[in-house]
Structures are given as C-alpha cells and as structure tokens.
Specification:
- The structure holds 2 protein chains of 2 kinds.
- By secondary structure, chain A is an alpha/beta fold.
- Chain A folds into 3 domains: about 130 residues, no CATH class; about 270 residues, Rossmann fold; about 70 residues.
- Chain A is built from 17 helices and 22 strands.
- In chain A, strands 10-9-22-21-20-11-19-18-12-17-13-14 form a 12-stranded mixed sheet.
- In chain A, about 45% of the residues are buried.
- In chain B, a hairpin with an 8-residue loop joins strand 10 and strand 11.
- Classes of the chains: A alpha/beta, B alpha+beta.
- The complex binds adenosine-5'-triphosphate and magnesium ion (MG).
- The site of adenosine-5'-triphosphate (ATP) has 13 residues of chain A, from helix 3.
Chain lengths: ~550, ~325
C-alpha cells in the first residue's frame, strides 16, 4: 500500500488516483506467497498439485526492494484457504475453487542476499512477498563463498544445480573434518574426490596442506579389482601431487609406488600401548620401558631373555613382561614392513610439500593398521611440533582415519593418541579427517572440535542426533533431510560457507575423466587448472 | 450467573426462534402456500460478478479512526473463477469534521453527485459509510465490465435506499444495470426482518422452515413486498426470500431493483450455489467474501508500518500512543 490517505491535494483527482485497482486472474502464475511466520520459520503456500521436497531451497523476493531471502523446506502440510471441514464433508463433491486448496510449506530461513552478498537475516520478508524455487542464477552468491577443494555440485532437493560447484576451503583443513555415512552411501567415493582435488592443488603448486590417507581396503590406489571403479593413480594429469607407498608386492611394482617400510627404531612403547587393552600392571611396565632401556634398542632388548630379566629386576612381574614381550614378537612378525629403512621421513617431506600421500596396506589386520597409523601420526606430530618451535614455514597436514570410532571413542587410556591430535593438533597445523559409519560412537567433545562435517546418508537416528548435538552449525532442523539423503548426496557444514550446503558429490570416476580431458585439451604448461578454478565446476560426461 | 437466570434467557430465545406453528406464521404475515415459487436451477453462459468489501480497524485515536478498507469483486464464468479485481485498498481516516473532503471527490467522480449530507447520528458510522460507498463504486465498475445477460451479485441489501445517504449513487447504479441488461441482486448474509406482535421473531429463518415444509427438497423463492413484516421494504426495490439449493438449510434475503426478470436472475444465481465450499449460497459471493477479507495479521502489520511512518513524520511514539483510545491499550494488554 502506497498511500494511506484519502485526502486529495488536487481539486479533481483522476479516478485512477482515487482507487487501487489491481487484478489477479486465473492466468497469474505465482500463487506462492509468504504468509507467516517469524524470524525462525517462514510459511508459504504452493498449489496443491505442485511437487515440493524437504530440503529444497526457495527464494523469497521481498516486495520492499532489492533483497532476497533464502529458506530451506522443513515440512509440508495440506491446507486450504477456507477454514472448516468442507473439503472432507460428504456433501462436498463439487469443488469450484481448486486453486484455493494448497500445500503449506514450512521453511527455515538460511539468510538473505543483498547486493550480491549473503548474510544472516535479522528481519522477516514482507508478508505476501512472492516465493519461487531458487534457480541457478540466484545461487551465484554461493560461488563467492566456496573454497578451492571441489567435491561436488550444489543440490536443491534432488536436483543438481549445474552451475554451482561445492568446494571446501583449504585453510579450514587444520580444523578437523568428519565424513559420516552409513555403509555404501559414498564415504570412500567422497574421500577419493577430495583427494583428487587436493592432488590438483598440489600439482599446480597451490596446495596449502598435505593429505595422508591410510587405506586398509586397497580401494584408493587403483580402485577395486574387477569393478569399474578407479583409483588415484588414474588421475595421471595431476600425478605430481601424489605420493604412494604400499605393502603389497604387486602394487609396489608400479612405477609411481614405493615400498612402505618403517624402521624398528621408530617404534616407541607408546605405539604398542595403543594396540591392546593392557592391565594396569602391564601398562606400568610399558611406561617404565623408556626409563629402563635405551630408546634405540628397547625393541630388541625387551624380546631377549636378558632384557626380560632386567625388567623383572626393576620389580615387574615376570608374567607381565612375558606377555608384553610375546605380543611385540607377534606384531613384528606379522608386519614385514618393519625393516631397517624407513619411508616415514619421505612421507613427512611429501606432506610438507602439500601432496596427497597414500599409504596402501591392503589386507592388513585392524590392529596392524592402527599400529602403523599410530607410528606415522606420532612422527608427524613430533615433526610439526619441532618445526613450530623452530619457526620454520611449512604446510599443514590432514591425517585421514577410516573407521574413526575405533580411536576417537573417548574413554580412558590406550587409544588416546588420536584424541591428542584431535585436541592439540591444530596448534601445530595437524588436523584429523575422521571417517565413520557411526558418529554416535565418537566422543561428543571431540566431535564438537570438527569444523567441517560431510554428512552423507545416515540411517540411524542416534547417529544423526549425535551430529546435531555437536555440530558447530545448527543442523537440528535437518533431521528429515539427512534421513532421506540418497547415495552420493551430502550436507556439508563447514567454516566460511554460511549455512549447511546440500551437495551432490561427484562420482569419482566421472570426476577423473573430466579433469583429465579438460587438462588434456588445454595448454598443459600454461593454463593447467586455471580454467577449472575459474568456477563453473566440472560437468560429468555420461557413461 | 445463576443457572436459573440462564434458563430464563434460554426460554426467551427459544420463544423467538422456534417456529411452533406454520399456521400462526402464515396468518401473522399473510404468506400463503402459493407465494412460494419453485426455482429452476439454471446454468447460463454469462459471467457472474460478485461485489464485497471489508474494513478493519488499524488504530483508534478517539477523535479519528484509521481503518483499512478494501472493496472489489470476483468474476466467474460458470463454476470457473476468472479473476479478482480489488478496486479500493487504503486506509481511511474517519474525522467528523473533514469527512466531506473525503467522500465528495468519489461521489462526484463515480456518480456525478455534488452533495452528501450525513445526519449527526450518522457521523459515528463514517467508516461504515465510506466502505459502503467503495462497494457501490465497485458495483459501478463491475457494471462497466458486464454485458447483457450477466449476473451482478452484491453482498448486502439494496432496500430502503431512499432514506439513506447514497440513494443517488444507488439510483445511478440501478439505471446503469438496466441500461446494460445486467441482473442485479443484493443478497444479505444477515437480516433483521422480523414478524410478530409482542416480540421479534426472525422472518427469513421462519420463512425458510415453512418453505421446507411446503416444498421439501426444492429450491424456491418468495416475494415479501406485501407481507406484514417489520420493517416493510420500501421504495422501488423488491425484496425476496430465496433458497438457492434443494439441500440447503438456509434461505437468504434478496433485493432487486425491480421485479422484471427476477425469476431468471434467481435461477441463474441458484445455478452456481451448489459448491461444496458454500452449499446454498452463491459461490461467487463466497469467494468475494474471502478475497476481500482483511486478516488480523495483515492489520497488525499495517499498524506497525503506520507507527513507523508516524515516527518518520515527526510524531514521537509515545505521543502517538498516549493519544490512542484507551480501549486499544487495554485490549492490547490482554
Ligand atoms: N557421489 C556419488 N555418485 C555416484 N555414485 C556414488 C557416489 N558416491 C558413491 N557412489 C557409489 O556408491 C557405491 C558405494 O560407495 P562407497 O564405496 O564410496 O561407499 P562407502 O560409504 O565408502 O561404503 P563402505 O562403508 O562400504 O566403505 C559405489 O559403487 C560408488 O560408485
Ligand atoms: Mg568405504
């Protein structure tokens, strides 16, 4: 309403000036209108035959001017303009006004876009402002807030918004990240896409952190055998951003793969203590080892009769020491990669250069994998701590842990090494990327340290509510959406992107093909990657 | 209140509402069985226009009231809604001293009239009159659009217009309707027509009950012109009671400028009174009512904007508030 007065200045105003003639006719398209409700929830209506999905994002075009509010659908209800139960009354068979029956949409405000930039909304849209499904163009403000590690494209409901890539920020990566999904929903695929984008950054000299991936399932290097899936080595154009180490004889024979070795001297009693549930007597003995033996030779000594005798002399029970000695023997016997040489210095150097380091340990047991990961992580932490003290410049590092609930479950004792990284790593530039099917088993406090959450389909309610409780961004209203995520669909909550973004993660195989072909066509020396970074993202080719 | 007192009130109400004897009603009013005419329910090709208006108090400063007034009409072809036209949607500031400046430009522009005299007692109802005037303007604009054979429905009575301030405006509307060959019916949602000697009894409702007894399961109408009811419809306008649908439980009072073609006009109205949304009431009027209605939320929002605007105009918020009618303060604290 423009005028609120009926006093006229002129002597004989025109009829038009005296009235507010306005016509809405049957051809008018938009009956989507904001009708209520407050700063925390908008409600609008759409024609009852129109399909709307939970999670879809809508734009509210404010009547007052150049401001647009964005809101995400939380719930959908049947409704009509005419109160009463006429539409269920028995006599009611002859409806005249179909368009007065509609669905009422409840939506959660995401923020508003004013002059092309996004911010949280401190006010509500004007009542009766029109509402429409947010289109590609209207999302363009999101391009500005996206980072450099592309992982997929924006998704609106189940539709992919082709033009808007979803990309994480490198400089948020020392803040820990979590990848959560029920089995088969796409965790490994996500990690491969993530690693591929990191390889691209490293190959272009733009990487600001190294990514360590320890893969006990043998799926990252070459993909799974027989299947159509691919691995990181297939991304040849960016191979300079990748360093691979393997325990597998066949894989080691590939030119770009080195044999993995760990020197016995690198192992310390703490690495052993991570592996088993020790009694308190055994734990005491383990802690004493440092004091009793020389750190270079303890591993040999504790396995020898003289060494065992020394520990007994120190007052530890013979049985206790025998158990420790026997377990260490078994461990060393099983892990043929323990040699005189060590790959770890190289691994750390590659990480510091910002590369993706893949440690391929197919068919390795759970315990051995943890043991290895424990040693490497400790060495990384020590090294980064030392360098921080020396003031040397180096890139941050992100350590990936599969089945992270094994080591981040909270509780006391043996597995606290990773929890230490989770708590203190940031100071030294070391972050964790925890992958798990069961976030509910991860310690709440640790979870609250995660600044980037990649949530794929989670079928267990307890898993979802654990994430909602601990996430930095508010996810509480997204329960229904998380529950209904399809394979490869994700919600990504991260620093620098102002609200949890719905995404469709690239299928790794498509991503590899597209990255390779785009680079292949361009000028390899001059323009590599530049076109890709300019935005627009990649478009998968069809199978 | 005591049960006993309630019981007495209930009895008094019952005495008025219950139609115990058809004969007594017929004798008192002079209505006969043959006065009830069956109504053929007839669909037609033309358009149905339905005019309505509403008002909502935004702020009351005792000496002047701000009301949002809205008027307009909906257009149907058969059962299919075609469009809704709002003709007026503005805040009217009612002031006993300056009302002429607000009414007269409209009277002149739309009805060619130069005078408007309200009696002292009528000044309390300025807002109602202004809304009524806007509804008449909407009627006039709808008539501009209508063609021969179309039906124009108005939410409200058209009777006794001679004594009312807008007699001239209605005259103009009636002759325009006649010129253009448009049937105009005023259909009232409520009616104070009554019958009886010592107490008032509802005429329309009792006529409807009798109608159901005489012509069960039928649509019908009845002219009330010569009957003994109160008040007696006056002037040239003819008044009727009509039941628009065979299964409707209600009948309505209908006014028409003249009796010519009333049978056809009522049949056409009955042709589209069968919707599930409002069985027995012309659907177009039902829609007009909903489309023109002003919601409470909308009023509250407008009040907020008005206060904002007042602030900008230089009136402090507490100055605006202290002048508000104290009812507004009391009621808003509830
Ligand atoms: N973004 C995606 N687009 C298309 N297909 C996908 C996507 N993500 C995963 N898939 C497919 O889903 C299947 C399972 O994916 P993936 O192995 O990544 O799941 P996972 O969560 O790691 O399962 P697990 O718990 O068994 O490790 C694979 O066949 C993969 O190709
Ligand atoms: Mg997996």
């Amino acid at each position: 309403m423009e005028r609120i007065s009926t006093q006229f200045k002129e002597a004989s105003p025109s009829r038009e000036a005296m009235l507010d003639q306005r016509t809405v006719d049957a051809t008018a398209k938009s009956t989507h209108r904001i009708i209520s409700r407050n700063v925390r929830e908008y409600q609008f209506i759409v024609p009852y035959k129109e399909r709307v999905e939970v999670g879809e994002i809508f734009s509210v075009h404010d009547i007052r001017g150049d401001i647009e509010f964005l809101a995400r659908v939380l719930d959908i209800e049947h409704d009509s303009n005419y109160s009463g139960n006429w539409d269920t009354a028995l006599r009611g068979v002859d409806f005249y006004d179909q368009e007065q029956i509609f669905n009422r949409i409840k939506a959660e405000p995401l923020g508003c876009v004013e002059n092309g930039s996004f911010k949280k909304a401190r006010t509500i849209p004007t009542k009766f402002s029109s509402v429409s499904q947010t289109s590609g163009d209207e999302f363009s403000f999101l391009r500005k807030v996206m980072g450099d590690i592309e992982v997929g494209r924006l998704r609106n409901g189940s539709q992919v918004v082709e033009d808007i890539p979803v990309a994480l920020h490198s400089d948020a990566m020392d803040h820990h990240m979590g990848v959560f999904a029920t089995t088969g929903m796409g965790k490994s695929n996500f990690m491969k896409v993530f690693a591929a984008s990191c390889m691209r950054l490293a190959a272009d000299g733009n990487s600001s952190f190294g990514l360590l991936v320890v893969d006990p399932h043998g799926e990252y290097l070459k993909g799974t055998k027989g299947g159509r899936s691919k691995g990181l080595v297939h991304l040849k154009s960016f191979s300079s951003g990748l360093a691979c180490y393997s325990t597998d004889r066949e894989n080691r024979s590939m030119p770009q793969v080195e044999e993995l070795s760990v020197a016995a001297g690198e192992i310390d009693p703490g690495d052993i203590s991570v592996l088993y549930d020790w009694s308190s007597a055994q734990r005491d003995a383990l802690e004493a080892i440092d004091r009793v033996f020389d750190s270079a030779s303890w591993l040999d000594e504790i396995q020898s009769p003289t060494g065992i005798a020394r520990m007994v002399e120190e007052g530890f029970g013979e049985n206790t020491i025998n158990v420790i000695s026997r377990r260490i023997k078994t461990l060393l016997g099983r892990n043929s990669y323990i040699q005189n040489r060590s790959s770890i210095p190289n691994i750390i150097r590659n990480l510091k250069e910002g590369k993706v380091v893949l440690v391929d340990i197919p068919r390795m047991s759970d315990r051995s994998e943890l043991f290895l990961l424990s040693i490497i992580s400790r060495r990384i932490m020590d090294e980064y701590k030392r360098e921080l003290a020396s003031g040397e410049e180096r890139r941050a590092c992100l350590i990936t842990i599969e089945e992270a609930q094994r080591v981040l479950g909270g509780g006391s004792g043996s597995i606290s090494r990773f929890e230490t990284i989770a708590r203190e790593g940031r100071k030294f530039g070391v972050g964790l990327c925890a992958i798990t099917q069961q976030p509910k088993l991860i310690d709440k406090q640790l979870l609250s340290q995660f600044n980037t959450l990649v949530i794929l389909g989670l079928s267990d309610r307890n898993d979802r509510s654990r994430l909602e409780e601990s996430a930095k961004q508010d996810l509480s209203s997204m329960e229904i959406e998380i529950q209904t995520l399809e394979k490869g669909e994700a919600i990504i909550s991260t620093l620098k992107i102002p609200f949890p973004v719905p995404a469709k993660i690239h299928r790794f195989e498509d991503y590899v093909r597209t990255l390779s072909s785009e680079v292949g066509e361009g000028d390899l020396l001059m323009g590599r990657g530049a076109d890709l970074r300019r935005g627009g993202g990649f478009r998968p080719t069809m199978d | 209140m005591e049960r006993k007192a309630l019981e007495e009130v209930a009895l008094a109400i019952k005495e008025r509402l219950k139609l115990e004897s058809s004969e007594q009603f017929m004798e008192a009013t002079g209505i006969e069985k043959s006065d009830y005419k069956p109504l053929t329910v007839e669909e037609f090709d033309g358009l149905t226009f339905a005019v309505d208006g509403s008002n909502l108090s935004i702020c009351d400063w005792s000496i002047a009231q701000a009301n949002l007034i809205r008027a307009g009409y909906v257009v149907y072809r058969g059962k299919a809604w075609q469009r809704t036209k709002t003709t007026f949607d503005r805040i009217f500031l009612a002031d006993r001293r300056s009302y002429r400046d607000q009414f007269l430009p409209y009277m002149k522009a739309f009805f060619g009239l130069d005078t408007l005299a309200l009696k002292e007692t009528e000044l309390d109802r300025l807002t109602t009159y202004f809304r009524e005037m806007q509804e008449y303007i909407a009627l006039s604009l709808a008539l501009d659009e209508a063609r021969k054979g179309d039906l124009l429905l108005y939410d409200g009575g058209l009777s006794q217009w001679k004594e009312r301030p807008f007699g001239g405006a209605l005259d103009a509307i009636f002759s325009k309707a006649e010129e253009r060959g448009v049937s105009l019916l005023g259909i009232s949602k409520s009616s104070t027509l009554s019958w009886g000697e010592e107490i008032s009894r509802p005429f329309i409702q009792h006529a409807a009950i009798l109608g159901e007894r005489l012509l069960p399961e039928k649509a019908w109408y009845l002219e009330v012109g010569e009957k003994r009811i109160d008040p007696r419809p006056g002037g040239a306008v003819r008044s009727y009671v009509a039941r628009f649908h065979p299964r409707a439980s209600r009948a309505f009072r209908v006014d028409a400028p003249s009796g010519d073609g009333i049978d056809l006009a009522l049949s056409h109205a009955a042709g589209y009174s069968g919707s599930a949304e409002s069985l027995g009431y012309p659907h177009a009027l039902f829609r007009a009512h909903h489309e023109m209605r002003i919601g409470r939320d909308e009023g509250a929002l407008l009040r907020l904007f008005l206060m904002e605007e007042l602030g900008r105009s230089g009136l402090e918020l507490d100055e605006a508030e202290v002048s508000l009618d104290y009812h507004e303060i009391l009621d808003s604290c509830l």
